[in-house]
Amino acid sequence: MRFRIVAALIPAAFCASCSSPDAGRLAALESRVSEVEKQPTAAAAASRASFAPGLGEIMGLNQIRHDKLWFAGENANWPLAAYELEELQEGLDAAVKYHPTHEKVPEPLERLVPRYTSSPLQQLRQAVEAKDKVAFAKAFDALTAGCNQCHEASSFGFNVVKRPTVPPFSNQDFTPKR
Fold this sequence. Notes:
Largest sheet: none
CATH architecture of the largest domain: Up-down Bundle
Low-confidence stretches: 1-13
Number of domains: 2
Mean pLDDT: 85
Radius of gyration: 30 Å
Oligomer: single chain
């Protein structure tokens, strides 16, 4: 019987302490800790926000996209050409976003890149949509010339791009699926 009384008093004593001001503050703190634990740390968020790929990395990927775009168009694989064209545009946008200015470049990239690529990219979009290989080749060559002009204007004229002759990847089939 004694055991039953003690067992009944323990929860009652605990509940009495729950209504104390300290218990309320403890519950509020526990709730705040729980919310904070669900969120990324400020340091982790700042680290993610401050990461920017280098201009060389962005342009290296664009070179691959340029190459793949050519072989997709040359093989009349229009869905792949449209995809690579969009990826190339995203890469150019990233270059401008992360490097609006760059060392030794006399003019901001946010002005240079569109000046030399906007018109050829639009021509390429039209050729891809029309599934026109002749217009595609002409627009591709105009884009390549625009890239080289941009390189010249930005003091990177030593970096010359050209129409590719060999597919960049031996593990990709550029012919369209029928």
